[in-house]
Amino acid sequence: xxxxxxxxxxxxxxxxxxxxxxxxxxxxxxxxxxxxxxxxxxxxxxxxxxxxxxxxxxxxxxxxxxxxxxxxxxxxxxxxxxxxxxxxxxxxxxxxxxxxxxxxxxxxxxxxxxxxxxxxxxxxxxxxxxxxxxxxxxxxxxxxxxxxxxxxxxxxxxxxxxxxxxxxxxxxxxxxxxxxxxxxxxxxxxxxxxxxxxxxxxxxxxxxxxxxxxxxxxxxxxxxxxxxxxxxxxxxxxxxxxxxxxxxxxxxxxxxxxxxxxxxxxxxxxxxxxxxxxxxxxxxxxxxxxxxxxxxxxxxxxxxxxxxxxxxxxxxxxxxxxxxxxxxxxxxxxxxxxxxxxxxxxxxxxxxxxxxxxxxxxxxxxxxxxxxxxxxxxxxxxxxxxxxxxxxxxxxxxxxxxxxxxxxxxxxxxxxxxxxxxxxxxxxxxxxxxx
Length: 435
Ligand code: DLL
Fold this sequence. Notes:
The protein is α/β, with parallel strands linked by helices. It is 33% helix and 23% strand. It is built from 13 helices and 21 strands. The longest helix is centred in the first third of the chain and has 22 residues, at 14-35. It is globular and about 75 Å long. The N and C termini lie far apart (58 Å). 5'-O-[hydroxy(phenylacetyl)phosphoryl]adenosine binds at residues 92, 135, 141-142, 145, 212-215, 234-239, 243-244, 301, 303, 323-324, 327. 5'-O-[hydroxy(phenylacetyl)phosphoryl]adenosine is lined by residues 92, 135, 141-142, 145, 212-215, 234-239, 243-244, 301, 303, 323-324, 327.
């Protein structure tokens, strides 16, 4: 039985990882300085030369990179190799703005497969598994990323891509898939369609799910685990760094191990740019140290998390990042109070509601309003009008206690919120249209 566990890296003593990072960082910085005018200019402006970057302690001297830099140099301005050496392009449009493009050499794809193979292995995948990939295939990195990792392990890959949920259910059942890869919101939708067809978790063979690409709470995790009868693992990544596989969860399910031999992670204060100590919440910043085509330096992800280096019961020594609780640009400021959609999700699921919800934010007469729309089950829906009003009141009170702001609650009939086949849209911020 084959897996893809690399204890020489994954459980390496800290000194070994640091030595590897020092060597790879200084080589990467030199290479981009010599090959990418954008980095050379930025470093010159900051008064830094490659000779100044010898170890990871020098990292803070380098300027940050931002999504806007990718837009300004669109399409190929940040590539560090000639286009003829690039064998794959991926792109991401994001929710707003112009799309960004990244490139991979043959070796970059090998590195990527390795990162995802480690993630799948940590979730128990071997060459005997059937891996059902419902992340979208195409320019989005989810589908081909998961696919490459499964292939590296030698598992049987089912490249379904996203969409046509009825067919997903048939394939899961008929092919006997044991591992599901998709966004957590789509996993929940697949589960709904499974049950709507009269089946249960006993009719499928899934044992693990590798879910990521969007924020999700532990309450959502338990819901998916219960409905699909599997263990749900988190996986993190972003197009600009490599795609899925930057960090992955192990059996302990208390955060994700960063593939530190390929990426250096820092946590910074998003307002001042100052590097924060381990254990402090801040914005995650990544530096690629093995990528050839697109080795981005100190990339500001806007994801908010915490990193910790405590001992993990799985034996891995790779630093752990918490589930990103959201993005700096997802955080809603309602009448001065910071609210993350993930906090609302926690309350909804704890109170027994579905994870089919949407948050509508608006502004009238300079007063922000927030409305939480959530679907209720068929049983609750058949309750009396007074019963429903009571429920809405109770939920509003629970939200007020947790968030510190008053939210309007609207209970919706089952199946009224559009289902996601990829990243779920949780927030509709009408204020943006007013600005
Ligand atoms: O979402 C890559 C990916 C594909 C990751 C499949 C995991 C699984 P982008 O489309 O560029 O890439 O979006 C990256 O998604 O900055 C986070 O805000 C968010 N994100 C990704 N994984 C997680 C996660 C892919 N596990 C952006 N938890 C990132 C929370 C996540 N947010």
